[in-house]
Protein 1
Amino acid sequence: MARVHHKNGRGGGGGGGGGKGKGKGKWKMPASVARKQQAAMANVDQVTGDKIPKSFVFSRGKLPSTLRHLQQDLRKVMLPYTALNLKEKKRNNLKDFVNVSGPLGVTHFFILTNPKSSPHLRMAKTPQGPTYTFQIKEYALAADIANSQKRPRCPPEIFKNSPLTVLSGFGGLGEPFKSLVEYFRHMTPAIDPVTVKLSTCQRILLIHFDREKEMINFRHYSIKLQPVGVTRKIRKLMQNNQVPDLRDLNDVSDYVTKAGYGSESEVDDEAATVSLASDVDKLNRASRKSAIRLQEIGPRMKLHLVKVEAGLCSGDVLYPQPVGKEGLGKKGKEVEEETEGQEDEDLMESDDDPEDESEE
Amino acid sequence: MASATAPQPVSSPSAAAGAASNNPHKRKKPAARGKGKGKGKGRLAKTPRRSDDPGDLPRRRSKPSDRFLKLLRKRARDYNSDDSDDEERLSDEDEEEEGASGSGDDEAAGAVTRFEQGCRAFRVAFTKIMAKKLPDDPLGPILSAHKKLVAAKLAEDAEEHKPKGEGRREKRMAAEKGHVIPTNHLDSKEKELIKIATQGVVRLFNSVSKAQNCRKGLNPSRSKDAKVLAKETKQAFLTELSKTSNQSQKGKASSNFSKNNSKDEDEPGWAPLRETYMLGSKLKDWDKMQTSDVVNEQTEIPLDDSSDEEYAIDSPE
């Protein structure tokens, strides 16, 4: 069995306490029931009541060290609802992971493989699929990106909340990509704009489809908010909580009025300013305007969709379209589906095929 | 050729008769010298005779016979004219020497000739070897019979050595395949991606502020505020309902708004306060719930950031 250190976010602790408190009254809840309930609570968002998607990132087969680092980076991307220190052994097979994923509420698998020394990434939904297989054409680790930056910024607090997902370039595309968009959308917890706290939006995952090259660009950025119209010195003063160095100044007012380096590049990003709904921190108040700055934290990947399977690493191949005998067999199945799904036509139209197939 | 050989038999008896034991020496010496001039081989021939030299010196000054001189000249001419002639002449001379050496010095003369013969063979062999055109071999001219073996062994060694280094490099290359270390400066493509992402974040923040501004100060987890919210949304819901009452049968996709609000109206904002929180089929077969949830979520949350982003950003493209 895979040894699992599962990091529960806020859901785990709070839910567990509630379950036990109930049990201390007249009737004591059996331990097994309590455990089950606790596990179930952990899988549900406390505010919106939605199911929280959780993920495992692991590898099949032997990986070179750079790919191992990529695996760890991907786990960090998927934080907090992932197993950061998931240990897999050689003898663990896919079934073991599936068996563990059920009780833990894990819904998404990211499987790194290296067949014939060309790295591949499989994204799958458990336990029934579908599975999307990508070839990783190019990748850069988070460490590489930090090395390329003058001032890398990656505070550990930003990994306490799940990233926002931004999909772009997927509009008006055909079947494999439609379901892929669905997959990506449910990879991270959905954001309810009514209840969300802006201070929890600190990372963003950009998945951009390049139509010319048919490549999917995977980028991971940190979000930084800066108040507009506040000089750098004031900003630093507010952030650092320290008495500034006033040795060379004649008057305190000089500290404020003296021009800085003039390297403020706030002029160009008029589009990147927002008025916040609530206070994010000391500097970024609700009433003020703030500029959004993104800085890449990596990893960076260039993916090419190779295959889509209906099941979990098995089942019918939905993409690329199978030819010959298989194609005929699949057509027959599709016809069956249509007849079955006659009564709720709307659902069939709006939803995607792979999901339905997995439901059967 | 015949003219060259003819006089010799004649001369030798005369020499033997005239100058009993000295003659062979005298005759030999100039011949050797002549050869030495030609190819520097005379020096070799001279060495065995050195022991005799002191005794020979006074005699050498005596004038050689005309006939002998003539012979010498002829030999010199022959030598210079052709190699093959020379060979035959030498062989003839050998015979003659054998015949002539009846006296005391026959031993020394035999040694000389034998050496000379070996010398000639060596010369022939040497010239032959030198004339041979060698293939351009990096190993150089190796005469040993093991030449092929040595070459094979060297090649084998080289081959064995190469795969070690090359294999390692190949392995490393394979492990690093696809790994691209980014450059220091942001190129235009990366900038564009950042721009897209920024746009997405801006859109999300704007939608959040739009959704949260109207109910600022109201906490949905507090029951008092929840009531106010419910009242607020109830009106909106009713107006929406009257609009879409004819369409309500058709499906959920027709109006996201009504769906969203109906939920708000019926249930408290905080999930644990809802009647259906963690109950029913939701938990029993959670996987099914999830797949059906996919449909719901799509319609339920109109401002799900990703969906919003996707279409909003695509439209200008």
Note: Chain B touches chain A through 71 residues (CB under 8 Å).
Protein 2
Amino acid sequence: MKFDRELIVRAQGGDGTAQESIVKQFSPMVFRLISRFFRSREDVEDLAQDVFLKVFARIDQVRPDENFSGWLARVAVNTCYDELRKNRRRKLAMETYGPEAFREASVAPPEVDSYGKARAALESLDPKLRIPLILKEIEEQSVEQIARTMGLTQTNVKVRLFRARKKLAAILGQR
Amino acid sequence: MDTKLKEFFDEEKKRVFTPDPHFHTRVMARVREARAADYTIWDAVPSSSRPVFGLALVLMLAFLAVQLFIPQIPERGFLDALLEAEQGPSDAMLSSVADMPDQEFVNQLLGFEEQK
């Protein structure tokens, strides 16, 4: 923790070596977190780079005594949320206005393995519900941690988790 | 929760990408690029002299604005300027202030006129 504090103070002063050390130290965590929401390595790498660019652009906002990894996780999750929303909007636009072939393909996604149904159901959830569910079930975070990461109240997180599970069950029951 | 779904979540826990050894180099290259793009003339001024520089800039702009937007007082009026183009040398002599006869001579001339 002390090491982190000194590193952050140096990075805030524009020290490139300190910034590089932060990337080296925290990139496995950022990669792991983004991997939960995106399936291609290229997407994960691009988003991880964006996360660190945002971190260094706003490093002045970090209080050195604050939990840096928690703040970083919040930046990473917010970046994923923005990207998931963008993808969802793009997909909806393509389904509504895109070519016929795309519309048909998106209605019946191909099942590549035995978990195809579950994966498709999870991916069809709104990012607002999908993110807390993934953080809870895959990242094994507590409700309190999720609330802190997403900037929500614990009650709000519980409500979202309940709705996500219900919706997931409904989608899987239909198929 | 559905067993299949639980198995799927357990499977997803194993699916993790890790950064390659050159990831930090690529990030730092992008950070430097972003910093160079953000560099303005303001960054070239040392932070201690920024208030002085700022004040000087504001005063200079204010002076320029005054020079540009407030017109100078004209040396001659509109009618003078208009008539000047049409006046010949003899007409100019009539309206010239420099060659005006003194008041006493004017009164004498006026006296002659009244006597007539």
Note: Residues 3-69 of chain B form one domain.
Protein 3
Amino acid sequence: MKKILLFLITLALWFVFAGRVTIEVFLLGTIICSILSLMFVDNGFKLVQMKYETKEFLLKIYYILLVIISFIYDVFLSAVRVSRHAFEIKPSFSPRTVRIKTSLENTNSMAMLINFITLPQGTLAMDFDNLSKNYFIHWIDVHSDDEAEIKKARISKHENLVSKLFG
Amino acid sequence: MIDFIHSLSQLLVYVFLLTGIYFLFSTALGMIRFPDFYTRLHAGSKCLMAGGIAVLMGCIVLEGIGFVSLKLIVLILFLVITNSIAIHVIASFADNYNILPKTIVENDSDE
Amino acid sequence: MLYLILAIVLSAILTFYRVIKGPSVPDRIAAMNSIGVMFLLVLVLLSYYFERKIFIDVALIYGVFLFINVLVMSKYFSEPEKGGVGD
């Protein structure tokens, strides 16, 4: 089952890179992809930590689409806010560094949350402490303490979305 | 009717490309004018990624449905995953390098 | 289409100012990363200007090498020398 799934994924990537569908391309792709799927069948799935059924697998695809759409929307929203600072005559900031504790357990979802902190919302992940599970975050425009609490709540909304993905 | 749809898609392509070039130009200005290292990194990550996604989406609309647009979608996904990891690696490296951020308000990172 | 390509090249040249006059090493690495992504977009737009679709494949491989470049450079400079290079 795992071998067939990995074989189909690599064959689809092969067709995308080749750019056309003929018999010769299909035969060469079958040989290369079968070798690759036999070689990496143990290591590849250990990285993804995949242990759910096919019905949950379709639900995961829906969550992945939801995550990507919200991700691209947030990137545009925060790029407008940063680029407005770039065209001012005197750029005025009020940056500060904050640390945030996460409640995630899985290693993949912690690495996924770094992507969510770094690109959207005007934040930047500086460092990650592995023992106490703290992120050190650099904010670009926080004017008071109340605004910091609102934005921390906005990060925990992303955290719920990520925790649905990997569990 | 077909002519109308064609001109509408042509308009959409130019809106996407001009938006992307506005973000890229603001990246260049932000890299020059911002005072601190970490704020410079903000300009180098967010505006750059928004510009890149906008230009590539304009190319997808220009191309239509085919294998080339699939390659461009793979390029967008690769660029989004890769560039955020690269920015985080640079920020973590600068934190180990003892470059302190210039904070105006006192930080609450040492409780 | 040509003027759009020239605008991206102009912004890449403006970013090159930060590579020359960067006070520290991570400034130069971040500026180099943004120059690399800008020239990747120039490659994608040039494939429509010359009407050669092979340039998009070149752009894919260029993205892979850009990522490896940033990782290796930040790994190589990560141990500061004895002379006190910081800041």
Note: Chain C has a mean pLDDT of 85.
